[in-house]
Write a structure and sequence with these properties.
11 helices, 6-stranded parallel β-sheet, binds pantoate, single chain, globular, alpha/beta, about 35% helix
Length: about 290
């Protein structure tokens, strides 16, 4: 497994593989790898001839008050975790290598409808930062397919939109969320939880499960009733010891707009705080037929 830091070397490497008709897979990460990341790697490895994992903590997707500086950087243990999993290259550029110009980058990639709702409301600029770095990474690595976790559901939809709108020739694969045995979705930010917060954290998924069940039972024709269910779920999170709730929402699966009624599949999403840890999760639900 080779570690590459320079964009030109990374591009030359994948171009060489492609000249030999080898299929290239790509898993973008910010490092501090856990089983959720390894699941992305394990999903792609059997489908491709060559596999690239990027490790880059992207400054553009962190707000000024967010945890960019504190975000765990664990390259050595990440390399150990990837060893033996079929990864050919770890692309680990510096921020200067990725963004060499005077700050900020003068080009922006924005997906306004998807980026300004839900997490975008409490994290302005976050998805523009994600869209920018993902577009750059896809242009540098030029993979045939790339894997993203369903846990970051809104990010996944933003990435799909960017890829479709910019005609990027890559197949985006969504990989189901990996959970602890008590339901907590794996996330690097779980490390911020103390023992008491960790005990409370599974209530996020449990609340989404209750909401999803209610939404499924409510059928596809009752968008007005959703507000009451969302409010009840929000209260359930507060009662379970969450310190604050950014949102609990039931949305359409593709554009994350509020359901109009009639949708068979919707997604329940939530973001809530335990101390300094902001946890997110989601659950896609098939709603009951009404006929
Ligand atoms: O999901 C992440 O880890 C990041 O948002 C990503 C996709 C690697 C972009 O920095």
């Amino acid at each position: 497994m080779r570690v590459i830091e320079r964009k030109a070397a990374m591009r030359a490497c994948t171009r060489d593989w492609r000249c030999q008709a080898e299929r290239v897979g790509f898993v973008p990460t910010m490092g501090n790898l856990h089983r959720g990341h390894l699941e992305l790697v394990d999903r792609l490895a059997p489908q491709v001839d060559r596999l690239v994992v990027s490790i880059f903590v992207n400054p553009l997707q962190f707000g000024p008050e967010e945890d960019y500086d504190a975000y765990p950087r664990t390259l050595e243990s990440d390399l150990t975790a990837l060893d033996g999993r079929g990864v050919d290259v770890v692309f680990a550029p510096t921020a200067r290598e990725m963004y060499p110009g005077a700050e900020p980058p003068w080009t922006g990639i924005d997906v306004p409808a998807l980026s300004q709702t839900l997490c975008g409301e409490s994290r302005p600029g976050h998805f523009a930062g994600v869209a920018m770095v993902v577009a750059k990474l896809l242009n540098i690595v030029e993979p045939d397919c790339a894997a993203f976790g369903c846990k970051d559901y809104q990010q996944l939809q933003v990435v799909r939109r960017v890829v479709a709108d910019l005609d990027l020739p890559v197949d985006i694969q969504a990989v189901p969320t990996v959970r602890e045995s008590d339901g907590l979705a794996l996330s690097s930010r779980n490390a911020y939880l103390d023992a008491e917060q960790r005990r409370r954290a599974p209530a996020l998924y449990a609340t989404l499960q209750v909401l999803a069940e209610q939404v499924a039972r409510a059928g596809a024709e009752q968008p007005d009733g959703l507000a009451g269910l969302e409010a009840a779920a929000r209260q359930r999170l507060l009662d379970s010891g969450f310190d604050a709730v950014d949102y609990v929402a039931v949305r359409r699966c593709d554009d994350l707009a509020p359901p109009r009624g009639g949708e068979r599949r919707v997604v329940c999403l939530a973001a809530a705080w335990l101390g300094g840890a902001r946890l997110i999760d989601n659950l896609v639900v098939e709603r009951a037929a009404v006929d």
